[in-house]
Amino acid sequence: MAKVSGRNKKRIIFTFGVLCVLLILLAFRLAWIQVVKAEEYSEKATNQQTSDIPLEAKRGAIYDRNGEALATSAACYTVWARPAEIKENYKGEKLDDISSKLAVLLDMSAEDVKEKLVKEQALIKIAKYLDKETSDKVKDLDITGIEIAENTKRYYPLGNFASQLLGSVDDDNKGRTGIEAQYNEYLSGVAGRWIKNTDLNGNKLAYGKEVYYQAEDGLNVVLTIDEVLQHYVENALANGMKETKANRIMCLVMDPKTGDVLAMATTPGFDPNDPTEPDDESEKTVFDDMSDADQVTYLNQMWRNPIVSDTYEPGSTFKLITTSSALEEGVTNLKKTYTCNVSYTVPGTNVTLHCWSSVGHGTETLIEAVGNSCNPVQIQLAEALGAEKYYDYLEMFGITDTSLTNIDLPAEATAQVQSEDAIGPVELATMSYGQGIAVTPIQLVSAVCAIGNDGVLMQPRVVKELTDSDGDTVKEFETKEIRKVISSKTASEMMKIMEYVVSEGGGGNAKIAGYRIGGKTGTADKPSADGKYSSDTYSSFIGMAPMDDPQLVVLVVVDSPTGVQFGSATAAPIAKEFLENALPYLGVNPQYTEEEEKELKAEYTYVPDVTGKGYSDAIGILGSSGLKYKVTPETSSTKDFTVVDQYPKAGTKIKKGGKVYLYRE
């Protein structure tokens, strides 16, 4: 045997030593991976082999009281990508090619698609809300690592309809405003997941597990809203906007006996199918030029429901609350007479307040005083009650700076009422006729509903019940009595007063032959930013029908009408248009008096006497006879005035639709 030379022996020993060191390092590395980092690498392997696809729950529908769909969930599709698989199978030009093909189908830029395809994530969403046709085209591309999941998108079949009430959802299908936000917990349901073990190419592993967690669909919300009545309201508001050219018009309709909201609308609205831009084309142009911050402000205002969230000075419509309180306390009665001399000095002060009329109403009963909308009489009623008692009734009617109606809608505001300790005789006086106090529309309507409900205040509600996918009731929301505010006797007397206002007073533009309609008009100057009053107004009318068995209370508020600003001329005709359609729909048949039957058949009518009446009242009285009017001499002033003469004279027989000239000083 040949001897190994010393030099070769050293080489062998060195090589053996290197191998030993390498084996030791390999052992340490193996121990590091399998022991120290075992949990981390195990998790990575599991993540790479686990396909976890979220399954979106179907959002519950929103129905009207008769089962008509107002919001539903339509099927759509989401494209998901597994970047690890994409990078393994597509590189260089192939990656660019599939990015371009996907970009064309998904209406995206190729750069954005490519960026998502190679992102360091196990699973990434590429696009959502695709229709079936587009999703099928994506499937046909047969791209390894691309998966498509079916989910839902919110759809509002009637578009811009009750938009502020219904609200909308965000990109994650969560309620943003309105009913969608208030009942999101019930509507959204519980999302599911599909978890399975796959190889790099998405094929199921033989030893893998598969778990499917079925999504639990959301509950349906059934509203008290009647779709037909809502349509009548929205049509009337659209016509009112054309006539008045106002900033906006609000309308709320409630059932006084239950507190059910039957219709609620504000115009202009928005299309909840595309809630992040205005529905009006001209407004879109303005919106697009805004800064991001201004756009956010604009959208929040557009989505806002002012009927619940905004306050306004009610003006003379608030006289119904003051009069009800005074009657209930016995400080007045229907036959008691008052004298109006235009001005009235508040006792204990040197402050003189004025009636809207430049000519005194003279001696008048309480019914006539409300019909004439006489401010001095309301001041005297509040004085007779006293501040403490008056505030007690405001609280009973639910009108305080802390009271909420607790309607089931988000962001309800409270009234703006001065503290009882802070008011003096003058503040009490102005509050009596609806100035110096601000309420939400829902508060005023709820309070007036008590008059039509035998004196009982109801809690307003918008949602009737929740149902499951089979239509079975899961939860029912009962009507709720709050308190007895006024006696049955007082409620009956107030209904007589309200009916007089429409049949004989300034609410005549809401008069409908064959129906007993009651109501009250109101015109209040809008406060400006500097704390003073501007020339803009809130012109309103609150009505009730039919007065022998009230089924509807309707409030119309016209915000900043142009031209004639009185509630009798702007809001009352809108309420009339609604009631003319709503009452027959509800099965309330007209019952004509002999006089009404003659008037309906006749081509002519007799001119009523409006000389000495206020301009705003004259408009309503002439409107009740189907006559038009013209002021002479013409004036651009929007202030009320007393009619000093008229032509034709009272009692003259003229053709219906004819014009009466009203003379001013």
What labels would you give this structure?
665 residues, alpha+beta, 7-stranded mixed β-sheet, 5-stranded antiparallel β-sheet
Query: Structural class from helices and strands?
Result: alpha+beta
Unreliable segments of 5+ consecutive residues? none
Radius of gyration: 36 Å
- Nearest-integer average pLDDT: 88
Largest sheet: 7 strands, mixed
> Which outline best applies?
elongated
How many β-strand runs? 26
Helix content: 25-40%
What is the beta-strand fraction? 15-25%
CA distance, first residue to last residue: 144 Å
Count of alpha and pi helical runs: 23
Compose a concise summary of this entry.
The protein has 665 residues and is α+β, with helices and mostly antiparallel strands.
Write up what this structure looks like.
By secondary structure, this protein is of the alpha+beta class. The chain is built from 23 helices and 26 strands. Strands 2, 3, 4, 5, 8, 16 and 17 form a 7-stranded mixed sheet that branches. It has a 5-stranded antiparallel sheet with strand order 10-9-21-20-19, sandwiched between helices. It has a 3-stranded antiparallel sheet with strand order 1-6-7. Strand 12 and strand 13 (352-354) form a beta hairpin. It starts with 5 loop residues before the first helix and ends with a strand.
Outline the fold blueprint.
Blueprint: H1 6-36, H2 38-49, E1 50-55, E2 62-63, E3 69-81, H3 83-89, H4 93-106, H5 110-117, E4 124-130, H6 132-140, E5 146-155, H7 163-166, H8 178-182, H9 184-188, E6 192-197, E7 210-213, E8 220-223, H10 227-244, E9 248-254, E10 261-267, H11 281-288, H12 292-303, H13 306-309, H14 319-329, E11 337-340, E12 343-345, E13 352-354, E14 362-365, H15 366-371, H16 375-385, H17 387-396, H18 425-432, H19 441-452, E15 456-458, E16 463-467, E17 473-476, E18 481-484, H20 488-503, E19 518-527, E20 533-545, E21 552-559, H21 567-585, H22 594-601, E22 604-606, H23 615-624, E23 628-632, E24 645-647, E25 653-655, E26 659-663
Parallel strand pairs: 2-8, 23-26
Antiparallel strand pairs: 1-6, 2-3, 3-4, 3-5, 6-7, 8-16, 9-10, 9-21, 11-14, 12-13, 15-18, 16-17, 19-20, 20-21, 22-25, 24-26
Helix pairs in contact: 4-5, 10-21, 14-16, 14-20, 16-18, 21-23
